[in-house]
User: What shape does this take?
Amino acid sequence: MEFFSSIRRGLGWCVMLGLASSISIGAYAQSRYPDRPIKIIVPFSAGGSADVAARYLAIRLSESMGQPVVVDNRAGAAGIIGVDAVAKAPADGYTILFTSSGSLLTTKFLYKTLPFDVERDLMPIYQFAILPAVVYVNSDLPVRTVPELLQYVSKHPGKVAYGSWGIGSYPHLAGEYMSQSQRADMIHIAYKGESVMLNEVLGNRVQVAFGSIGPTIQQAESGRVRILGVTSEKRVPPLPRVATIAEQGVTDAPYQMNAWQGIAVPRATPRPVVDRIVAEVRKALQQPEMREKLESLGMFTVPDSSPESFGMAIKRDSVIWERLIRQARVEPQ
Assistant: This one.
């Protein structure tokens, strides 16, 4: 009996030593984080607002964290492809998602089945920036205000096309609301990213779009597109002469929505690693040069976000987006 008791004690010590060893290795790995390159996955094509912001952030993080931080664009399916790649990535802090509100909030209302579950598989850790949208048109369209646009599409049913970067994106929902509320039977054309959509407006293959301020400004300055209004409550510094949509007397809720950009990691990512990423992002946004550059492009940064506050914002906005989707009568695919 004593012999077997000794064996059991020995096995117990082996298990305890193994657990202690694994805990030590995990703690050691976290304390050395990062010790290899970090990848930021953007679930949209290059050139859009999320891509631009992620690349600015990647430069700052590379400098402060002492490791290369690279941006990997995984466009398609309204952001699902890129989000899924992060949801299935190792939870070690070396794969980070930089995305928009649409891909984290609306997909669960728009698709019957998804390859991931946002609540189960992802941990939102930082609300990076708030992004008011603009409504803009090809310069050949004979309208200069939002009321004129609504009147035009109403008088030309089935003749006006609007673009988006996917089913359930804000450009799709706002455009669909415009089509239905004006009985305009507008044609919806979805693209893989915002930059592609903007190019299609420039080519007059679609005439109307809702989009981010930054990518639209240069083309508006060249006269190739015309910005008609902004969704924010107040006018924004990059477009001081452009009235808000509400200022123009159009107060429908779908035209007052503001998108955001945010950062998430796989759900099981250790909290010390999460805290390090949050601290580094906050540090990057404290740099006046970066903050001013982003704000000049219509991205108004959030200097004091956290996993807790970002999670609460997602829960609050989720209710609003669901209502907007139902108003647009979008059926899950």
Q: What stands out?
A: Residues 19-25 have pLDDT under 50 and may be disordered. Residues 18 and 90 are 22 Å apart (CA to CA). Residues 143-255 form a domain with the D-Maltodextrin-Binding Protein; domain 2 fold (CATH 3.40.190.10).
